[in-house]
């Protein structure tokens, strides 16, 4: 009994130490908001990247100031190239969505081995989509009808891609996420060439990052939306900015209008932290994960929050308990739980949501996924607590990120200045699967804003196809 009591005491002591390491004070939270805001502001300067700025801060000319018209295509390309999604969106005379269709294509491995072959496959997907949804005949019927609307001879196509894109439709040179060898490529030009060779009735009209596309979709649903943030495998955010504030784009003509033209800024906010390590509350487990990652010293903020990494942080904490002989029995099979990234972030939500006294969900997951059964109640409580600690810190950081963006948009965006209410669109698998994390993020956002701004903010969740629909809306709004 004394031995058991001693083990439980040591378990609790280590758990308390971890909780203290992951705790974020109010002062630290405000410091993060201020640091992010400063970086967002500096990122608009012409020499920002030359001076070693961390964020991408690329402006995108989007068409939210006009209304969508006719039928358009939207297409999303994953950074990995594994999937291509194509959607059509038809808008009626009052700019309401009247019909839509979506198709998902899985890229054959051979097609990803060369960029030319990959673009040829995209053309194949477009042709397949047009035929399945009978869109070519629709163009012909529109042209021959007596409608007063100008007939469409080509379907406008908006491309959304999971990589940072410049205002000139080029993938950023430093896109470490690029698995398709597209760095520096002009996506629109390359796809246009392929489409022309394939004789497709499609015209590429825009190329945007997927978070910018989600912002377009959000503004279609709610004109007051000025910020969109995505928390998926990686994290990113975009917001609306007056063009006069973007040094590389400002011009005398833009200043002469009554209402300055706005652009969407793709921040690549997950890059923050590599040069601001004193601002972010890094623990020894964060440093270990960063050191062992594919790209050490990059995207530091992302590694504290993203779906790709949160489960791995929990797994590292679990194995540290095991190394200290404070978790599980000595004769368990350790190979599975010792494998990097074996503990998926998706496991955290059901463990955290288990309100039973026995925390049976922990037992079920570890037996099915890691071959570890017969876990004591004390061990189950520890694992559940570790999930709550890591998720709790992530929600505070996510709230700080959104707060910094809201404050920036409130100070800069004409839309935000004119409206008494600003809307924020959130999306991503983190929030789709973990209600508690989402609610705590919103609470953290509200807490941060009370210290910095009196902006009234309405937060809502977007569906997973927001980027696809946003690309179509952007194309249809020309």
Automatic annotation (TrEMBL):
<comment type="similarity">
    <text>Belongs to the hexokinase family.</text>
</comment>
<keyword id="KW-0547">Nucleotide-binding</keyword>
<dbReference type="Pfam" id="PF03727">
    <property type="entry name" value="Hexokinase_2"/>
</dbReference>
<dbReference type="GO" id="GO:0006006">
    <property type="term" value="P:glucose metabolic process"/>
</dbReference>
<dbReference type="GO" id="GO:0008865">
    <property type="term" value="F:fructokinase activity"/>
</dbReference>
<keyword id="KW-0324">Glycolysis</keyword>
<feature type="domain" description="Hexokinase N-terminal">
    <location>
        <begin position="15"/>
        <end position="220"/>
    </location>
</feature>
<keyword id="KW-0808">Transferase</keyword>
<comment type="pathway">
    <text>Carbohydrate metabolism; hexose metabolism.</text>
</comment>
<dbReference type="Pfam" id="PF00349">
    <property type="entry name" value="Hexokinase_1"/>
</dbReference>
<dbReference type="GO" id="GO:0005536">
    <property type="term" value="F:D-glucose binding"/>
</dbReference>
<dbReference type="GO" id="GO:0004340">
    <property type="term" value="F:glucokinase activity"/>
</dbReference>
<dbReference type="InterPro" id="IPR043129">
    <property type="entry name" value="ATPase_NBD"/>
</dbReference>
<dbReference type="GO" id="GO:0005739">
    <property type="term" value="C:mitochondrion"/>
</dbReference>
<keyword id="KW-0067">ATP-binding</keyword>
<dbReference type="GO" id="GO:0005524">
    <property type="term" value="F:ATP binding"/>
</dbReference>
<keyword id="KW-0418">Kinase</keyword>
<dbReference type="InterPro" id="IPR022672">
    <property type="entry name" value="Hexokinase_N"/>
</dbReference>
<protein>
    <recommendedName>
        <fullName>Phosphotransferase</fullName>
        <ecNumber>2.7.1.-</ecNumber>
    </recommendedName>
</protein>
<dbReference type="GO" id="GO:0006096">
    <property type="term" value="P:glycolytic process"/>
</dbReference>
<dbReference type="InterPro" id="IPR022673">
    <property type="entry name" value="Hexokinase_C"/>
</dbReference>
<dbReference type="InterPro" id="IPR001312">
    <property type="entry name" value="Hexokinase"/>
</dbReference>
<dbReference type="GO" id="GO:0005829">
    <property type="term" value="C:cytosol"/>
</dbReference>
<dbReference type="GO" id="GO:0001678">
    <property type="term" value="P:intracellular glucose homeostasis"/>
</dbReference>
<feature type="domain" description="Hexokinase C-terminal">
    <location>
        <begin position="229"/>
        <end position="476"/>
    </location>
</feature>
<comment type="pathway">
    <text>Carbohydrate degradation; glycolysis; D-glyceraldehyde 3-phosphate and glycerone phosphate from D-glucose: step 1/4.</text>
</comment>
């Amino acid at each position: 009994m004394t031995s058991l009591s001693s083990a439980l005491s040591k378990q609790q002591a280590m758990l308390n130490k971890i909780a203290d390491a992951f705790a974020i004070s109010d002062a630290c939270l405000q410091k993060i908001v201020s640091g992010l805001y400063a970086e967002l502001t500096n990122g608009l300067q012409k020499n920002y990247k030359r001076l070693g700025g961390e964020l991408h801060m690329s402006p995108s000319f989007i068409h939210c100031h006009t209304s969508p018209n006719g039928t358009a295509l939207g297409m999303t390309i994953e950074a990995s190239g594994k999937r291509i999604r194509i959607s059509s969106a038809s808008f009626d005379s009052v700019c309401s969505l009247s019909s839509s269709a979506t198709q998902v294509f899985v890229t054959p491995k051979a097609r990803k081995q060369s960029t030319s072959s990959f673009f040829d496959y995209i053309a194949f997907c477009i042709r397949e989509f047009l035929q399945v949804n009978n869109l070519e005949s629709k163009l012909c019927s529109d042209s021959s009808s007596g409608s007063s609307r100008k007939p469409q001879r080509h379907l406008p196509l908006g491309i959304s891609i999971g990589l940072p894109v410049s205002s000139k439709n080029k993938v950023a040179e430093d896109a470490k996420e690029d698995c398709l060898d597209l760095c520096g490529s002009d996506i629109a030009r390359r796809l246009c060439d392929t489409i022309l060779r394939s004789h497709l009735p499609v015209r590429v009209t825009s190329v945007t990052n997927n978070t910018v596309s989600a912002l377009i979709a959000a503004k279609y649903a709610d004109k007051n939306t000025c910020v969109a943030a995505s928390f998926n495998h990686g994290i990113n955010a975009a917001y609306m900015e007056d063009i006069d504030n973007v040094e590389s784009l400002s011009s005398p003509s833009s200043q002469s209008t009554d209402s300055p033209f706005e652009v969407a800024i793709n921040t690549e906010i997950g890059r923050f932290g590599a040069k601001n390590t004193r601002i972010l509350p890094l623990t020894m487990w964060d440093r270990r994960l960063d050191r062992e990652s594919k790209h050490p010293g990059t995207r530091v903020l992302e590694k504290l929050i993203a779906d790709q990494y949160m489960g791995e942080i929990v797994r590292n904490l679990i194995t540290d308990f095991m190394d200290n002989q404070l978790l599980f029995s000595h004769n368990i099979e350790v190979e599975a739980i010792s494998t990097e990234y074996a503990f998926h972030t998706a496991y955290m939500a059901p463990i955290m949501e288990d309100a039973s006294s026995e925390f049976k969900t922990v037992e079920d997951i570890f037996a099915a996924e890691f071959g570890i059964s017969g876990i004591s109640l004390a061990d189950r409580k520890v694992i559940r607590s570790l999930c709550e600690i890591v998720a709790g810190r992530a929600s505070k950081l996510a709230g700080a990120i959104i707060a910094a963006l809201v404050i920036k948009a409130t100070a800069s965006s004409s839309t935000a200045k004119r409206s008494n209410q600003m809307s924020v669109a959130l999306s991503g698998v983190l929030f789709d699967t973990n209600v508690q994390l989402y609610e705590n993020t919103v609470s953290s956002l509200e807490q941060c804003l009370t210290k910095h701004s009196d902006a009234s903010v309405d937060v809502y969740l977007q569906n997973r196809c927001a980027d696809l629909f946003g690309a179509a809306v952007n194309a249809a709004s020309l």
